[in-house]
Amino acid sequence: MSGLVAKNLPRFHHVAPQATFIWDPSRFNRKSYATVSKPSAPVRKNIVYVDGVRTPFLLSNTDYSKLIAHDLARETLVNLQKKTGIPKDAIDYVIYGTVMQEVRTSNIAREAALAAGYSEHTPAHTVTMACISSNVALTTGIGLIHSGIYDTIVAGGVEFMSDIPIRHSRAMRSLMLRANKAKTPMQKLALLATIRPGHFVPDLPAVAEFSTNETMGHSGDRLAAAFKVSREEQDEYALRSHTLAAQAHQNGHFTDMVPFVVPGVKNAVDKDNGIRVSTKEQLAKLKPAFVKPYGTVTAANASFLTDGASAGLIMTEEKAKQLGLKPKAYLREFTYVSQDPKDQLLLGPAYAIPKVLEKAGLSLKDIGVWEVHEAFAAQILANLKALDSEFFAKTYLKRQQKVGVPDLKKWNAWGGSLSIGHPFAATGVRLATHTANRMIKEDQQFGLIAACAAGGQGVGMIMERHPDAKI
């Protein structure tokens, strides 16, 4: 990993896993927690992550190109029920995230649930928060369970970049609406006579931040410059991500991925198709994708447009026992952060990680599994350097000391969004399932999820391995 981050960054030695899974809040100077309550404190329910599934993540305009987002979402709901064995009518609520909304299925959570055979009496709604939309689905579910309203919730996300909604221009839309109200042929002809060539220029979905009119790629280049992240470091990190993802595939670690039989495609889709292990020399030949000719973000060290869906089953621990299910993890803490959407658009993890660790009463050394969304290699490396910066800690985090650098041997050990793919709204649940599965395979107690999102926002989540956990 030489050259991956600044040479003076500390390296943490491997931390042995805890010998027991009994939650002891006194160890972390924690006042109360889910498994321990005080007479004066409200009792919080233990919420568990039973399991999760996903479709293979594919580059847009490949094998899923003739489908719609609804097809992918339905597939994950069907396969989650099959994998867990939970009766469909035992699901109290369904929440899905999506970013590029398909017009005909605006509440895709409801439409997909009905198509998957879930009860018509199971409510469902759709959420959006860019790259962390399915994190929002998960935490919305946590809130509904903690409120006592529901016990069992499916949370997921879907993104379909092979077909995005493209609108007529506003001028054309206005004309068409007025034409719809015109009562006589002469009125309609008069409106048609006002059409100009500019009316036919479509409104494409925004690729830039509304508040700054700047793309994420430009922000990635700015972060790289601000934190002195070189092109070589970015390419090396991208190569690391693809190499680890390829190894995870070969070793059978992606047990969350369910083969998808696509109509018209000869063989079932059974693997992610964006994983490409290249060489440093090949990566170095690519030209800048955003800031030309001097930028350092390229097509190879940035996440790519991806089609895919994911779904996870969460519920109270008590309900899981009643249903005879073996959960994989506890969902412990979460937090959302937001900051300057221009200069700090992609620094969500650097803000969320210390905040969620503090909420949980944990330290960097307690985390045995890190799953952090890889929007760009520059973004990941800038966040690592921010965590290791005394200046950043004192100036922006209002801390007396820097947070430090996580043990990179435990960081995205199965690859990440740069290689596996990044269907915007599906990545959050993919991160959660990989965290749960890695904690089991790597014999670790705690896992941390973090991600950045549009608008300068971010999320941090803590999971704890369940004592009954099995792959």
UniProtKB/TrEMBL annotation:
Could you tell me where this protein is found in the cell?
A: Mitochondrion
**Major site of localization recorded for this protein:** mitochondrion
What's a Pfam family this protein contains?
A: Thiolase_C
Example GO CC term: the record gives: mitochondrion
Q: Which SUPFAM superfamilies match?
A: Thiolase-like (SSF53901)
Q: Does the keyword Glycosyltransferase apply?
A: no
Q: What's one GO MF term for it? A: acetyl-CoA C-acyltransferase activity
What is the recorded name of this protein?
A: acetyl-CoA C-acyltransferase
Natural source organism: Nasonia vitripennis (Parasitic wasp)
